[in-house]
Amino acid sequence: MKKVDIHLNDKNAKRVYAQFLALLRSKSTVLKTADRDELKTELISHVYESMGPSDSEENELNRLLNAIEKLGNLDDVVNPIIADKMIEYARSSVNPEALMNAYVNNSGSLFRKLIIGITFSLFFILVTVVAIISVVKIFDPTAGLYVGPKIFVLGKVGDSSQAKEILGYWIIPVAIILAFILYWVFLRLLHLIKIRR
Amino acid sequence: MNEFPKGFFAKWQSQVKKGVLEYIILRILKRKSYYGYELIQDIEKYTQLKLAEGTIYPLLNRLKSEGLVKSKWVEMEAGIPRKYYEITTEGSLSILEMKEFMQNLNSSIQKLAK
Question: A26, A46, A99, A176: most buried by Cβ count inside 10 Å?
């Protein structure tokens, strides 16, 4: 997309416009470049239309200030777009950072953030442990899935008489498949956040 | 008798506005394609709702990601390109469902008011 700018003559109007663009840039840094440029162009286009014709009686600075004021608080414009975009990025990504960004931007109140944060962290630890066990089994044959009358362990047990290892080396493909399934569930849960918002 | 909570009406009004704005946007886009600034002018003209103009963009973005509207940039002979939004087939179908829901809701409220 080609770069666009509002051509201004008044020195103070130029300063206000530069501040507006700097604020918009600082609030939208987490967006991908293409999305950031698109949002910027759309808002510049809006301000330009809102300012009206350059031959109007009102001076340029006032027309610009009015246009920016009528646009409203930039947080109310940019934050919901960022929240939606983060979900979009997370949907097309398996990157935990993209998932966490999506969660942080979509959780609403602090209490809800905390609950969802703890749930997702536990879920993420579970996925990681399951994935790690498939690697550990290659180097340490005593690691695996142990089941006993009172215990259920994914890893290693001190006293092997208390539990019996099941699956053996089958734990490797099973753990890999399970990790993928859990991660898929993780992504679906993230989708639910969007529906509830 | 309890005092009417300060600011309650304003909050309630703002929530109702938010709730129906997507429906209003789709109804207006059904007439023709619009760019953002033009759309907000027509929303105010037809509904007398006063909105911060920027609030329309997150809604348009969401409607677009749900596939209810689509957009395209149009270069202008003079000035800055405009991003035009138009309703999709899915958007038109959604209007019918939303309209039915609004009508049912309205008649239920009318019954309660009697």
Answer: A46
